[in-house]
Each structure stands twice: as structure tokens, then as C-alpha cells.
Amino acid sequence: MDxxxxxxxxxxDNGHADPVLIVGAGLGGTAMLxxxxxxxxxxxxxxxxxxxxxVGIQNAKQRRIPVFNDLKEALETLGVCSVFNMTNNDALSDxxxxxxxxxxxxxxxxxxxxxxxxSRLKLIKHELQENQTRLxxxxxxxxxxxxAIDADGHIENVNPAMEQIFGYAQQELLGENLNKLIxxxxxxxxxxxxxxxxxxxxxxxxxxxxxxxxxxxxxxxxLSEMQLDGRTHFVGIVRDISERKEAEERMLQLALYDxxxxxxxxxxxxxxxxxxxxxxxxxxxxxxxxxxxxxxFKAVNDNFGHxxxxxxxxxxxxxxxxxxxxxxxxxxxxxxxxxxxxxxxKDLHYIDHITHxxxxxxxxxxxxxxxxxxxxxxxxxxxxPKHTHDANxxxxxxxxxxxxxxxxxxxxxCFAQET
Length: 419
Prior knowledge:
419 residues; alpha/beta; Rossmann fold; Beta-Lactamase; Alpha-Beta Plaits; 3 domains; 5-stranded parallel β-sheet
């Protein structure tokens, strides 16, 4: 900005800027010397001061700019030029005017105003440069990916973090469509449709990104629209949320799954049972709840230790999973109690079939180190909606039926009583 203003102020009727002669090599003259020396459109023809040790004189010598100790000598030597009188002596401006004309002389209050304007512009320019440097440093070092795209989804700019997030070099991404990185974003549609779609996409969204080797991973994208010179652009902030998702998954696993058997725990079982009952209402297909308590588990714990007991529970859970359908739910309530939800029963005779099978496979021998042992299972069965229409009552009836099976000899099953 200061370069343009300087050139405008020095522009004469002959269509080009005159060389500049600075009168006074004190603080003002030195400042003007610095300003004009940085201006590629203006040349400093010389500087005048009666003090050969003035700061401006020394600076001019270092820049190989002619120095003078007499104004008239300087004017006679240089010829036509613009004169900046940075002294308080107005008589020097009058002398200069005799050689170059009043229109080419800036002095007194005019010179002070000019100096003040240029100084302020230089300060603003410096501050802008500093702010730009800081902004570039932030963009370069921030861990979040920053991406700029045009209205067609073509990538205009990315920061270095995008390289680490997606595995591409910055130059590889420029000009590519954003759907190369985030396939679910469609920027191939007409502009009017795209604009509406972009409005819907603005804000924070969890999406799927694709690494340069084809591996998919979860990302969070915050997309914002902006207008520059009447054109639509979008700026996106991209975060790789793989670690967060893994942590959420671990927390979910701890909250809803039994840590020994990896089966759904009591909390998740109640959720699944409620869902199954609602599903049964819609499909008109009954479901059965099997409440299983192991026979002889305490003896294994007492005789072989808790490690053997834990291995037995893991083996029991695997046998239950292998002998039920994918649509069924197997859960551990705690201790040696397991439950199974048999969903989508088209034939109630299937309940007898699967229960006979479970009692048989659970009674097969198990091996722990050099020991072999057997356990059995007592199973109580309650059917929805045959026995009840309520989830809690269904659990209670299956539990009571299990105890009835234990009373009648164990290693068998018993249906709940109809109410």
C-alpha cells in the first residue's frame, strides 16, 4: 500500500515518477530514505545534510546513494527531481523551488503529513505481514486437516495435516475432487442442487474417509460456505476420529458386555429383550426366553479353582453360541446364569428341539489342564405372548420354571405355567 501511495504522490504530468532528493539526514530524512529505498517504483537520487556524521548520510553511503552537504550543489548535480524537505527550515524549500519548481517540492507540514501517512501504512503493512505469518504458522502446524474447495468440489488448497490424515502429498490433492477422500460427498450435481446439499452438509458430521491405500476410517468434517469475489467456495475442517471411535467402542464393550465371555450382560440383555418383544408384536411371531442355570458349577470351582470355573463359563458360552441361530440372543446375567432369547418362532415345537440339544451339548465333558469334568443345565422356559405380555414377568416366569426343573432332578427343562 505504501508503494502505491508513494508513486501516486510523486507522479507528474510527464507520466512517470521523478527521482527523489531528500533534504535533511536526521530522523525524518533517515525514515524517508528507508521508505523510498524499499519502493521499487521510486529511486533516491541523493540526500543532503550539512552534518557529514548524520545517521541518514551514513545509511545513504551504505546503500551507495549520493550524499551532499550543500543543497544548491545537489540540485545542480541532479537536475530535475522531486525534493522532500525533512528539516524545519522552509527557506530550503524555497531554494529547491527555484531549481525544480514548486510542484516538485514537498516540505514543511506537507512533508510531515506525508511521512506520517507512510509511517502508518508501513506499520499496518508490518502488522498484516505478522498476522499473515502467524496464520500460516497455525494452519501449517494445526493437527486438524484444513481443506479449501470450489463449488464443484475441486480441491484448491490443503494444509500439511491433510497429508498425515489421508496419506497424499499436498500437490497430489490439488485439483482433485473431494469425493476422492470422502466418497459420500457428491459434488457432481448441478450447482443449484449442490448449493442446497452444501447447506445441509454444513456443520459437524461424522463421515467415512478413504486413505490413499483404500482403507476406510471415520472422520469428522465441519464444512462452511464462503463467498469470494462473487464465487462460492467451501472450507472444511477434517479430523481423524479413529481413536475416539475405538475408545467409544471400548467403553461400550465395558458397559454392555460381560468381560469374561464377551456375551451381552444384564443391561444389554434387557434392551435386547424389549426390542425382541416389540418386534414380536409387529411380526405376530412368538418368542421364547430360556433361563439357564448350570448344575455342578460350584463343585468345579471348589475342586479345581476359579481359573477352571472361568474357563468352563467361556466354554459354555461358546457352546450356546454355536448351537443357536444368528437371530437369537445369548447373554450372561452373572455367575453361572445364562439366558437365551429365541426370536421369530414359526413353530413352537422348535423350543423343545433346541432345548434338548442344549442340554445335551452342555453335558458333554470339558477339559481343564489334565482334568476332565462334567456339568449339566437346568432350563426354564417362558413364551411370549403365550405366558405373559410383560418383559419383567417373562423373566420371572422363566426363572421360576428353571427352579422347578432343578427340583425335579436337574439337567432338564421345564415350561412356565400359563396364567
